[in-house]
Specification:
Low-confidence stretches: 1-12
Bound molecules: pyridoxal-5'-phosphate
Number of helices: 14
Order of helices and strands: HEEEHHHEHEHHEHEHEEEHHEEHEEEHH
Strand order of the largest sheet: 4-10-9-8-7-5-6
Number of strands: 15
Largest sheet: 7 strands, mixed
Structural class: alpha/beta
Helix content: 40-55%
Strand content: 15-25%
């Protein structure tokens, strides 16, 4: 790239940065192009992207099928209001419902938090139209993350995110993750639903055993409560199946999707059974942008790729390879990392050193990762990653471990 152009884009960047509300602790790094699992920085450096835009770019960057689908749609029609029928959205809804094995309808929106808001409203409305409007409370779990709107923050219950934003939205009761007795005790005359992530992403890539989820299903059946799964991060292939809850052998009543749903195009969805959605009649909820033609095109194109034969076999094979290779790095650098957890390609590496230091050391090796709770570094490669790219990443991780390992440094000095 011409030097002048680089200098100019950097000037432009630093000027605009100063006018951005500084709610993100951004790295001083910007990209201008992507190719599969690679991101190319404005200075030409190539980074291996194991963030995938935080579990968004499941098919990598600039996937030809997605590019084609969005380009074709962009030339025809971008947006019409939900006052009218949108055939592409109807098609996507039908495909998602069929693939889910439980849902009858989908509501489209633009983000994970919005999808969660729709789930929360639906659960309350279900109880209200059944003549139990007093049932509005939702049981959630410690370590959860459901978004940054006022209600989803209250659902997540993280003090650090709630602080300073006024009275918290009423109606969420949080219990310890995996504690069935505490969950039973929390059910009262005002309980409407139980809300849980099949695998906590932000919370540190952790999950109770499948039996816990089956027990929640039973509790909900016994007490006429809605079971809500937040699959915003785990859904759309991230855990090696289209939806993470498949491995539990049970289904929810209501499920939130977003992140990878549009392959990078902002899109969320609330899927539900007809029974759960029975109170959501015309006028009870809405969205201006939700499920517009560009989003529907991106969603359908994402599904085209994911539902092709062999796609999830590949994800599961890559998952096995990555976790094996990571375990071997753990064995060799126990003073830097000490545990590998997760499912599919939602993998957490628990650090011994501060996880933020490991993220920075990896970035210095041009491998991009994301932090999470419990001192975990998340590895979220695009699902199309191949074995050579995994080996490349492991090489970068080893170099970062050497840089951070007191033992390795001592060996070098001695
Ligand atoms: C990211 C995330 C959300 C929030 O999604 P946004 O699109 O940022 O609003 C909600 N739930 C889970 C589990 C997530 O990982």
């Amino acid at each position: 790239m011409p030097l002048q152009q680089t200098a100019m884009s950097q000037t432009v960047m630093s000027q605009t940065t100063t006018h951005m509300l500084p709610v993100f602790a951004r790295a001083d790094l910007a990209f201008e192009r992507g190719e599969g699992p690679w991101l190319i920085a404005t200075n030409g450096d190539r980074y291996l992207d194991f963030t995938s835009g935080v579990a968004v770019n499941a098919l990598g960057h600039a996937h030809p099928h997605l590019v084609q689908a969005v380009q074709n749609q962009a030339a025809k029609l971008w947006h019409v209001s939900n006052l009218f029928r949108i055939a592409e959205g109807e098609q996507l809804a039908a495909r998602l419902c069929t693939a889910s094995g439980f849902a009858d309808t989908a509501f489209f929106c633009n983000s994970g938090a919005e999808a969660m808001e729709a789930c929360i409203k639906m659960a309350r409305k279900y109880q209200a139209v059944n003549g139990k409007p007093e049932r509005y409370r939702i049981i959630t779990f410690e370590g959860a993350f459901h978004g940054r709107t006022l209600a989803t923050l209250a659902a997540g219950g993280q003090e650090k995110y709630l602080e300073g934003f006024g009275p918290r939205v009423e109606g969420f009761d949080q219990v310890t993750l995996g504690d069935l007795e505490a969950t039973k005790k929390a059910i009262g005359p005002n309980t409407a639903a139980i809300l849980i992530e099949p695998l906590q992403g932000e919370g540190g890539v952790r999950a109770p055993p499948p039996a816990f989820f089956r027990a929640l299903r039973q509790l909900c059946d016994d007490n006429d409560l809605m079971l809500i799964f937040d699959e915003v991060q785990t859904g759309m292939g991230r855990t090696g199946e289209l939806f993470a809850h498949t491995r539990f052998g049970i289904t929810p009543d209501i499920m939130a999707l977003a992140k990878a749903l549009g392959g990078g195009f902002p899109m969320g969805a609330c899927l539900s059974t007809a029974k759960a959605g029975k109170g959501m009649t015309a006028g009870t909820h809405g969205s201006t942008f939700g499920g517009n033609l560009l989003a529907a095109a991106a969603g359908n194109a994402t599904l085209d790729v994911m539902l092709a034969p062999g796609f999830f076999d590949h994800v599961q094979r890559m998952s096995l390879l990555l976790t094996q290779k990571l375990a071997s790095v753990c064995d060799r650098y126990p003073d830097v990392i000490h545990e590998v957890r997760g499912e599919g390609l939602l993998i957490g590496v628990r650090a011994v050193v501060p996880s933020g230091d490991l993220v920075v050391a990896l970035r210095n090796e041009k491998l991009l990762t994301v932090g999470a709770g419990e001192n975990v570094v998340r590895m979220l490669p695009p699902l199309i990653v191949n074995e050579a790219e995994l080996d490349d990443a492991i090489g970068r991780l080893e170099r970062a471990c050497i840089a951070l390992s007191p033992d390795a440094q001592k060996r070098k000095a001695g």
